[in-house]
Amino acid sequence: MTPKWKRSERVQIAVQKSGRLTDHSIALLKRCGLRLTRGTDQLLAVAENMPVDVLLVRDDEIPGLVREGACDLGIVGLNVAEEQRLALGPEKAPPKALRNLDFGGCRLAMAYPKDGAAKAVADLDGLRVASSYPKLTARFLDQAGVKAEIVPFSGAVELAPRLGRAEAICDLVSSGKTLAANQLDEGETVLKSQAALLACPAEPPAARRELLELLKRRIDGVMQARETKYIMLHAPRGALRAIAELLPGSESPTIMALEGSEDRVAVHAVCRESIFWETLEALKEAGASSMLVLPVEKMLE
Ligand code: PRT
Ligand code: ZN
């Protein structure tokens, strides 16, 4: 069978093969319209309906693949992207960070043993800090004006103090349970992280430019839609101004007459921000009734 598209026309996207970012990354690409079939042991998922290949790799490989142009786009945590950018040095162009993707949220933070001598960064002069992120840790210590030794650690960093290898650690935290279970207190935040979309720093070849632009627009659309809600309600005409002010991030709502009612109208609006219960309660107070909040699946402006 002759392939429908030449290799040079196919967009390559790198995502984590198996880990915390995998399901969200694949779901995002599917919501962009890619029909992907993927087995757990496959290294490549080929889109059935577009010239797009999804490479499934370890997250640490993603910034390198995107920087060198082996992949056009990649999805990886900012923690990994930023650590590798610092390791690269100023003379090489890092991947472009196009946008944050609102999943994989965590923070790279300092942590100190409950019974240890150091309780904050200022106490670390002459002591040791274990981390899998030595460059980010070094930058943080530098900025704090502290001279400490960095002990590179590739896994289970939280064990380093107990093993007598360090007086503090710098590691990823989300719920904080791992730190607590290891008698560590969370300290300063070194980097706030979430998954990000990376792109190759070089201009893409003309054969892929259009498709890449389309994919980036669709990713923007999916992200916007996630935050957007469609609200429908009934309201007295006299309360319309107050109600419009309460609708978060909405522009010119649609007002429609209600059959058999002179005074009450239907209001439909697209809201660019989350609608909390408090907003609905405030709308009710202002005279609104029959309120419905609907998710928006796709958006294109
Ligand atoms: O095999 P591969 O190299 O691809 O995967 P990996 O083991 O390096 O990465 P993985 O899947 O563990 O994480 C991928 C990315 O998810 C990270 O680079 C972060 O951007 C993001 N992320 C979000 C996290 C966490 N939350 C997280 N909690 N990555 C790791 N953790 C670990 C942390 O290291 C610690 O051991 O979870 C533990 C702490 O969790 P809490 O909830 O107890 O605080
Ligand atoms: Zn990794």
Task: Output the keywords.
6-stranded mixed β-sheet, binds phosphoribosyl ATP, binds zinc ion, 301 residues, 8 helices, 5-stranded mixed β-sheet, alpha/beta
Question: How would you sum up this structure, described in words?
Answer:
The chain is an alpha/beta fold. It is 27% helix and 31% strand. The chain has a 6-stranded mixed β-sheet. It has a 5-stranded mixed β-sheet with strand order 8-7-9-6-10. The mean pLDDT is 93. Zinc ion binds next to loops.
Approximately what portion of the residues adopt beta-strand conformation?
A: 25-35%
Strand adjacency order, main sheet: 2-3-1-4-11-5
The coarse overall form would be: flat
Largest sheet: 6 strands, mixed
Helix content: 25-40%
Q: pLDDT average, as an integer?
A: 93
Oligomeric category: single chain
Class derived from helix and strand content: alpha/beta
- Rg, rounded, reads 25 Å
Count of helical segments?
8
- Strand element count: 15
Outline the low-pLDDT stretches.
none
- What is the element string, with H for helices and E for strands? EHEEHEHEEEHEEHEEHEHEEHE
Distance between the termini: 38 Å
List cofactors, ions and other ligands.
phosphoribosyl ATP, zinc ion
